[in-house]
Each structure stands twice: as structure tokens, then as C-alpha cells.
Design brief:
The protein is mainly β and 215 residues long. 9% of the residues lie in helices and 48% in strands. It is built from 2 helices and 17 strands. It is globular, with a radius of gyration of 18 Å. The two termini are 36 Å apart. The N terminus is likely disordered.
């Protein structure tokens, strides 16, 4: 069962109003760091009037707003570069593997794309598309991020020299995993959108995800 965490209680609403009235500053809540286990990084939901993107922690059946989460990729994620041209010339890459057993053995995230919360009969073609809008590393545009399946079948590539590998369609009610590859350490900001057509109207939601890759 999914338990959204974004709903504010009545008591919370009153407290927030009083804080504003009294001009009292409230410290920002520290982001939740996820570093291992099954996490659907892109998890789309439809509330009847709009699409939304969340991070779904499958281990604890908890949903987070993307802005409230830091995805940690530790040094333990480093593997030998498998040699696919789009992964650059470095001898190693940081990899979140598509195989859950491998991810668990390495103690790293098993990162997924989910449309499980979307039902059939709502979106045209019973599908939506996840699009990689932009990617930065340490504040600058980067070519160092990609997602691929199997033996080098690219899903996404942050290389701005190509317009390919930026968008992929997924059937609703599905759950997919692939290899998330990072060629350098640093703090990545990955902006993704989800879009689908409802009654002839294109609906879209966009969020930015923070990924910290450690050396």
C-alpha cells in the first residue's frame, strides 16, 4: 500500500499559519538520503486533474517529493567501464545496476521507473513518457550521465551533442529497471518530466532530482 507523505495535517496547517503571523523563521527540514534498497526514482501518479512525480521507497512503502530526497551513489558503486562508447573513456563508472541481487550485494540503490499507480483507460495509448530535460554536475552541464539496459541499449544520455536518448515511453501499470551510470563523482541535478495525453490534452509534470556520487 502506498502512503503519500505530502499531506499536511490540520494541526500542521494551524502551526504554519501562526508561525507566519508571528514572523518566526522555521528551519528547513533536512533532505532524506536514500543510498540502498529498491527505490523507484521516477514514480508517476495521476490525481484526476494532473500528473505528479514522486520518489517511492519500496523498502518502507513511503513516497517523497523529489526535492526532499538525496540519492546517494557510494564509491562501492564503481565498476569497470563495460566499454560502451557513450560511457566515455574512463576505466571505471559508478553504476546502479538493473539487477536487484547485484545491487543488494553491492549495497547500492536498485533504481527504477514506475507507472504502477497509473491505470488503463486514462492516458492515450495507455502509456506515458519520461523525458530527461537536463542534467548538470556540480552546477555545469554534463555528459556524464546515462541510463541503459542489458548490453548497452541506451534509454537516456545527457550528452547534449545528440537529441536522441532523451525520452522513452512506458506502459501504464508497469515497473522497469535499467542501469544508471555516472562517469564522474560530483553532485548531479537530473531534471525529468512525465507526460501523457488525457482526453486530447497533454498533461506534464517536471521535477529535479539530486544525486550525490562519491569518490
Amino acid at each position: 500500500m502506498r502512503i503519500p507523505v505530502r499531506t499536511m495535517t490540520v494541526a500542521g496547517s494551524v502551526a504554519a499559519a501562526l508561525a507566519v503571523t508571528a514572523l518566526v523563521a522555521t528551519p528547513a527540514t533536512a533532505a532524506t538520503t536514500l543510498s540502498a534498497g529498491h527505490v523507484d526514482v521516477l514514480d508517476a501518479e495521476w490525481d484526476g486533474s494532473g500528473l505528479h512525480l514522486h520518489v517511492h521507497d519500496e523498502e518502507n512503502d513511503t513516497e517523497y517529493e523529489p526535492a526532499d530526497v538525496v540519492l546517494s551513489v557510494p564509491a562501492a558503486a564503481k565498476v569497470a567501464n563495460p566499454g560502451y562508447g557513450f560511457l566515455g573513456s574512463g576505466s571505471e563508472v559508478w553504476l546502479l545496476p538493473e539487477d536487484q541481487a547485484v545491487a543488494n550485494a553491492r549495497g547500492v540503490l536498485f533504481a527504477g521507473f514506475s507507472t504502477e499507480a497509473l491505470t488503463t483507460g486514462v492516458f492515450a495509448g495507455d502509456s506515458v513518457s519520461y523525458r530527461l530535460v537536463s542534467a548538470t554536475r556540480d552546477g555545469a552541464s554534463t555528459e556524464d550521465f546515462s541510463v541503459y539496459a542489458g548490453s548497452g541499449t541506451r534509454w537516456y544520455d545527457s550528452n547534449t551533442a545528440t537529441t536522441s536518448y532523451k525520452s522513452k515511453a512506458f506502459s501504464v501499470g508497469a515497473h522497469n529497471h535499467a542501469n544508471w551510470a555516472f562517469e564522474e563523482a560530483g553532485t548531479y541535478k537530473l531534471t525529468f518530466s512525465v507526460s501523457g495525453t488525457v482526453a486530447g490534452v497533454t498533461e506534464t509534470a517536471t521535477e529535479t532530482y539530486t544525486v550525490v556520487v562519491s569518490s
